[in-house]
Amino acid sequence: METITSSYNLFVDSSRSHTTASTGDDFQINLQDAGVHAGDGEFIRLNLENFSMAKNFSDVNTNNSHIRVRGNSDSSFWTTSATGNPSYVDVRLTHRNNKSVYDLASDFSSKIILALNSLQTLGTVSLKANTTSPTSATANTDNIIQFTVSYTGTQLTSNAEVYIQLFAEESDSYELLGGDRINGASVLDSTQKSITSSVNTAAKEITFTCLYPAQRSTTPFIYLRAPGVLNTNIETKGLKNHSDDHKSDTAHSDILGRVVVESSEWIQYTAQTGREFFLDIHQKSLNFLRLKLTDSHNRPIARNTVSKTATGSGTQQSTLGNLNFSAVIRFDIVKRRTVQHLETEHYVPSVPPRFSTGVVTHLRNGEDTFGKSPGY
């Protein structure tokens, strides 16, 4: 049985902090003056009551835009790198919000053409007219991206000579575009394909077809974490580290809550019962709290671990810019009753002692006094 003995509301605005290590999405709070302490038989519980932030990062970003275009080592026309591996070109999708999958497909095809032209072996590469699917932003479609490019230079001889590779360690582009992920970004000479490529040698054309329906975003949730706080929550390994080999299914979690990204302008959450998202803390005193925002793979939002900017030409979005959040966190001091502690009250007689006349307080050495006068 649990009883809340006291509660505190912590109102957070991460836009400013006197701690130099704090950023707008990795905020550090000194709680020494707040007096958040638990007594004997008590523990501290953190509850996420409210969260709000502006969606000032793009759907296509550093965490889901990486694409590698390469050729097979058996292809005579592909040049090789200094290490002897087949040439490849890394390109990134445009970091923006696409209105439809058609817009995503158009950007994807333009980047592939850019990569093939940079290899300087196919002559001039261009998009074949009326081959992009989905055909328009309003067309009925299965959202599977397909397009055909034409080339004027050296003629390809087989389908095995052009590769589009989407590495899971590099980004979530395989989710965005609808392809198979490849694990192990360090394998430069990998011959795995993430999407299919079909060569028409007579027409000098290459048709690229994704395997699954595409999606405009790969960030359905923002995760609010409290690193360094010992607690009882658990999470699956994919949420802890996207490159983990998953030798076990779960790990201890520092996730305080998650918020749905359902608006193009604001990301907001308000608790309905007060127990949707919480952390039960093992320690008796909480003097320091760190609140960090991540995506579903425990990465900074829309960027790598070094960059301080998710979207835009500036370099300080999370420190001097508008990448920040506000929240309300409730601290409950909870008393838990257990069988190890006697919590019943001492016996209190119902009759006052002064009215307790005639009560025998002791016997005379165990002697039977039945039927004898009191003075015997």
Name the features:
mainly beta; elongated; 376 residues; Jelly Rolls; 3 helices; 7% helix; 4-stranded antiparallel sheet
Proportion of beta-strand residues: 25-35%
Please summarize the sheet with the most strands.
Answer: 5 strands, antiparallel
User: What best-fitting shape do the alpha-carbon axes yield?
Assistant: elongated
The top-level CATH class of the largest domain is: Mainly Beta
Count of helix runs:
3
Straight-line N-to-C gap: 56 Å
Provide the gyration radius in Å: 33 Å
* DSSP strand count: 18
Unreliable runs: 80-84
Our count of domains comes out at 2
Helix content: under 10%
Instruction: Based on the coordinates given, report the CATH architecture of the largest domain.
Output: Sandwich
SSE string, helix = H, strand = E? EEEEEHEEEHEEEEHEEEEEE
The secondary structure category is: mainly beta
Q: Which fold name corresponds to the CATH topology of the largest domain? A: Jelly Rolls
What does this structure look like?
- By secondary structure, this protein is mainly beta.
- The protein has two domains: 175 residues, Jelly Rolls; 144 residues, no CATH class.
- It is built from three helices and 18 strands.
- The strands form five sheets. Strands 1, 3, 15, 16 and 18 form a five-stranded antiparallel sheet that branches. It has a four-stranded antiparallel sheet with strand order 2-17-11-14, with no helix packed on it. A four-stranded antiparallel sheet has the order 6-7-10-9, with helices on one face.
- A hairpin with a 4-residue loop joins strand 9 and strand 10.
- The longest helix has 18 residues.
- The protein is elongated and about 130 Å long.
